[in-house]
């Protein structure tokens, strides 16, 4: 087989894997049709996959009607390939081992000294080596870091969260491990993580907005995160949404993050109610203290309005099919209505009608997303 033919065949094999990952059962005929390839080409690929233990035949398609050759249903052997995903935080890391369809096979936490990159890398290498021995089918290791990350070189340029500067994380880990690593920003890792709540179709074209201790985002097209020329695309937390608003860590005033992140909301509540204790989540306060409700209503409604301003700019600039707002305020109608109204007042009407706005809370996992990034890269290679 010449080089061109071999490359083409490999490309078709990867496309077949992607298609099969998205279909629990599928026949050779349906794969050929979906990928616009000949049945013969698909048969050769599937024969090889069956021989390698990646695909198995399940049985006849019982729904098949009419004449024609009987269609044998195929299914991926999802444990034939695996991936490791790790979220690095200040005091610990969360890790998962997943199968090819992102089902978690093992998960856990390990203490790391997140403020010391050298020690963290040694601890991470030890953990990965243990997991790689246990799961030799692992394709690679995805690392989600709360930082400005160059995902191509795997360099962590800057993390205020971890106090890291210019850490060549991929290069250093790869030199200590038998598998390759992939480094990505933790919000962006969340954004591509498969979730049982959100349809997989969202990954075809969406903007993900996450409100937590900070505010971050990611623009996703065809399951790929758009990172920008210097890795900061999607940083919706630094869109200015209020003239003369609070001063942000970035030096601007009125960034979305200064108004709707959890620390910002806590600050606002404290201003209204000095001495309020934050035990558990902010929303526990919602129903606990008498008299808090009115002021909280106002704070949550205004937060929704700021989010709506940012979302309308995303609709105009990027025209995504889905916008996913991931926040602890998901259940609050007052928040959802305020986001919608504010967005509708400011967006171009045509793209607005075509945009699906979804509210979720805690349905994504950065470590599962990091593992999934490894699988997506494998299918792209
Ligand atoms: Zn800012």
Automatic annotation (TrEMBL):
Relate the protein's function as given in its record.
Transcriptional repressor of xylose-utilizing enzymes.
User: What InterPro entries does the database record attribute to this sequence?
Assistant: ATPase_NBD (IPR043129), ROK (IPR000600), WH-like_DNA-bd_sf (IPR036388), WH_DNA-bd_sf (IPR036390)
Pfam families, from UniProt? Answer: HTH_24, ROK
Organism domain of life: Bacteria
- Keywords per UniProt: Carbohydrate metabolism, Xylose metabolism
Q: Which family does it belong to?
A: Belongs to the ROK (NagC/XylR) family.
Q: What is this protein called?
A: ROK family protein
